[in-house]
């Protein structure tokens, strides 16, 4: 689900089993799924349920059906069934998380206590209310057993200010409970929720606000836990579970000894995330090849940032139904564009430049038929994360290496596709880096490029000026404080950016050591100068249609002058970045 497009609504993409990657027959899927969607829109819910269940009998892992069925159950007031359906859809289609506004709506719909708690937490902020005031007399128990909420907390970064504040308030109450004399006797549901919250805090790199008193209490819990480990004494499960929501457990002395004890399953999962997996990543450091030296001044600084804060700390890559060829993908995505087909029948060589923590090269390797991917990045820590997260079936298709793209010409390798979707704007001279990559692109090869827009980033520029004026540093503590100050300033729009909600992403967004921004005329000038074929911008259908309505159909979809005029009138068009495709002549 695209972050800006979907809400908790029927999905209308028939005929694909997203989990198993098998195409359903047109006759079965088109008829049953399409008819069920029609009945759902007409409010004939019982009939829609019957047909959706028939589709599930054919393909139990059809994510769209699970989502739509949950929507029907929700409309019928069957919250338990709706919750189960949404949870199944999220498991099968992780890209549903990309629209967190839709996820929030889903959470509130299946458990109104969450919505009420968010309102109360927001109204009281920065004061932290006790759970009974936020959620009613049952306190944390009102949401602790919510399987959808627990799944969301463990699977993606929470990207909503009100939900973040609710969770921050509850975290403090759990900390006080853990510091209580015994810290045990907690119900299984509550311990399970504590574990989900701890995993969320690790995913967002402890970006939640912390008061000075709260930080002192968390430090007290750290010392208590460290002492118990040193003395090999009994440790209530709640201690490490709550501690893990304030600091990573691998930072404890002798953290590995936690793995030797018997714990409830929920805590075992937290230990895997925060102790075992970081240890596994460290084992890859000496195994990843170094393709180039890194001695450019800016490259050294950028590498340092991503060594401290690998970006991003993702959990699930997007699912891919059926692999396609580049020619098929571009022909479908840009039906109006003319380009020379690659026509490769023996696989394609792909370079992902600036691969970060690996989510994108994994998706690329899954997306394109017979793709052999070289994924490079400045940061060895990021590459180790990527290596650990790469599924075993893709391990032979993706090779990770540390390299500076400015020096990749020395490798004497060439590629059919180069993906530079988020790296060039972090170079001192983006166009110089673009030229280097073009030198690695085979004749007729394709390049996908991402660049920051000067117009669309004006809010980020204002926030960066605020940060400079206030003297914030790119440390975890200052990033936490800065976020709260921005939310209390006229610059609150920055919280509309998804990257605002984790430490590494917020640092990348607002504290980056090197950021360049360009305009469409800058891009056009480079394309003309280097004799490239501009294929088109990647966009949500809504924006594409808006452009067509203004300029009259598809004749001008590749007209960069008109796109510049469109962006001037609609300066948030490229809010994320310019993302487009070109072909080398």
Rg is 25 Å
Q: Uncertain runs with pLDDT below 50, 5 residues or more?
A: 1-9, 13-24
Residues in helices, as a percent range = 40-55%
Number of helices: 25
Q: How many strand segments?
A: 7
Protein structure class: alpha/beta
Strand order of the largest sheet: 3-2-1-4-5-7-6
State the end-to-end distance.
Answer: 35 Å
Q: How is the main sheet built?
A: 7 strands, mixed
Instruction: Give the DSSP E fraction (strand runs of 2 or more residues).
Output: 5-15%
The dominant shape is: globular
Q: Indicate the mean pLDDT.
A: 92
Features:
585 residues, alpha/beta, 7-stranded mixed beta sheet, 25 helices, 8% strand, globular
Task: Summarize the structure in short.
By secondary structure, the protein is of the alpha/beta class. Helix content is 50%, strand content 8%. The longest helix has 19 residues, at 212-230.
Overall description:
This protein is of the alpha/beta class and 585 residues long. The chain is 50% helix and 8% strand. It has helices at 26-41, 45-58, 63-75, 79-92, 100-110, 112-124, 131-135, 141-144, 147-155, 161-178, 188-203, 212-230, 238-243, 265-283, 297-308, 326-333, 359-367, 380-389, 430-440, 458-470, 476-487, 503-510, 520-529, 541-551, 560-569; strands spanning 348-353, 371-377, 398-402, 415-420, 441-451, 532-537, 578-584. The chain has a seven-stranded mixed sheet, sandwiched between helices.
